[in-house]
Write a structure and sequence with these properties.
By secondary structure, the chain is mainly alpha-helical. 49% of the residues lie in helices and 10% in strands. It folds into three domains: 50 residues; 105 residues, Tyrosine recombinase, N-terminal domain (DNA polymerase, domain 1, Orthogonal Bundle); 169 residues, hpI Integrase, Chain A, CATH 1.10.443.10. The protein is elongated, with a radius of gyration of 28 Å.
């Protein structure tokens, strides 16, 4: 029977000590002991332990792995299952730079929702961006889910943690309108200064919003010029290895503007392999070579040197879809290949604001007040 008892002893130095011991059995019937300095802490733990044991969700701290240890096992499992090198590398970087310095030594059994929110506060105070903090928390949830499946912990306490933005973070976000999106003039300058293979590459990026990895892996067999649709079915990772899109949502169909259809049709005779933008040996473009020998020189020719990275063309495409096609957030999510509509709102929520409608509504409000 579970109980709290007081223990007294004398140290080798002759000092008298006392502590409160919680003596209980877990859901497997194994006897467990846990020590506390204060009776109230022991009583509180016993209440929680009894509830968790009853639900079959209790993990004894003495047998629990730390979050850092579980993360290492998760990475090893990722490598054993032949996950992409970029995925394994990202998980290792998150462990090194964010988990170990702050929370890696905590045991899984000691983690709880308040501790995870405190951890997020520490990340914010250390200068981590909102996007990075959300990424870290998503990976923590997945890591604990892995640990739960291996029996290292009985419950995933991170599932209920939501990282919300505040006004200050929203104001300094990377996608402020008019600041980081290329302007119409700059988009036209990029198109006008691109030649050869680079021109259809840039045109497709601007009007289709595809990721660089998707463009590098695009096959002619996935391009239907007659119907004006690109079927995104694969991508090339940073090492040139072909694989499926980034997520299930990445597999999608993108309608094409006439300029994309005409530009790709004109480029088709010059493309010798199955890859639309492949090398002469029909290999994916190397990312480092593309940036150094094609993208950066294009920026200089267009007069916007060192202002944008290539990924911002994807954001520019989304802003055009919203501004000129009047697509719903769900439609934007589908075409952009976002894993959730929440991601779409996080990135482009401010672009869905109907400022004209706001002005009309305020005019009606004024008329109602003044007439009254």
């Amino acid at each position: 029977m579970a109980k709290v008892k007081k223990r007294k002893w004398v140290t080798k130095q002759g000092e008298s000590r006392e502590a409160w011991i919680v003596d209980y059995s877990d859901q497997q019937g194994v006897r467990r002991l846990k020590t506390f300095e204060l009776r109230k802490d022991a009583d509180a733990f016993l209440v929680t332990a009894r509830h968790e044991v009853k639900l079959g969700m209790h993990t004894a701290a003495s047998t629990s792995k730390t979050l850092g240890e579980a993360w290492e096992l998760w990475i090893a499992d990722s490598e054993a299952n032949d996950l992409e090198m970029s995925t394994v590398r990202q998980r290792r970087q998150l462990l090194t730079h964010h988990i170990k310095p702050f929370i890696g030594g905590l045991k899984l059994a000691e983690l709880n929702t308040p501790l995870l929110y405190q951890f997020d506060d520490k990340l914010r105070d250390a200068g981590r961006s909102l996007a990075m903090r959300r990424k870290v928390m998503v990976h923590i949830k997945t890591c604990i889910k892995f640990a739960q499946g291996r029996g290292y912990v009985a419950q995933n306490v991170a599932l209920g943690v939501k990282i919300k933005s505040d006004t200050r973070e929203a104001a300094k976000g990377p996608l402020r309108p008019g600041v980081d999106f290329p302007t119409m003039a700059e988009l036209n300058a990029l198109i006008d200064n691109a030649s050869g293979r680079l021109r259809p590459f840039i045109v497709t990026a601007i009007f289709a919003g595809m990721r660089l990895s998707e463009l590098r892996g695009l096959r002619w067999s996935d391009v239907d010029l007659d119907s004006g649709v690109i079927h995104v079915r694969q991508r090339a990772n940073a090492w040139g290895k072909m694989g499926p899109p980034k997520s299930k949502a990445g597999k999608r169909d993108i309608p094409l503007a006439p300029i994309v259809v005409n530009t790709l049709r004109a480029w088709r005779p010059s493309s010798k392999g199955d890859l639309v933008f492949g090398t002469r040996s029909d290999r994916p473009l190397a990312m480092s070579n593309f940036r150094a020998h094609e993208w950066e020189p294009l920026l200089r020719r267009a007069g916007i040197e060192d202002k944008y990275n290539f990924h911002l063309l994807r954001h520019a495409a989304a802003s055009l879809f919203i501004a000129y096609l009047n697509w719903t957030p769900k439609r934007i999510q589908t075409v952009m290949g976002h894993s959730s509509v929440q991601m779409t709102f996080d990135l482009y929520g401010h672009l869905f604001e109907d400022k004209e409608a706001d002005r009309e509504a305020m005019a009606k409000l004024e008329a109602a007040v003044r007439v009254a």
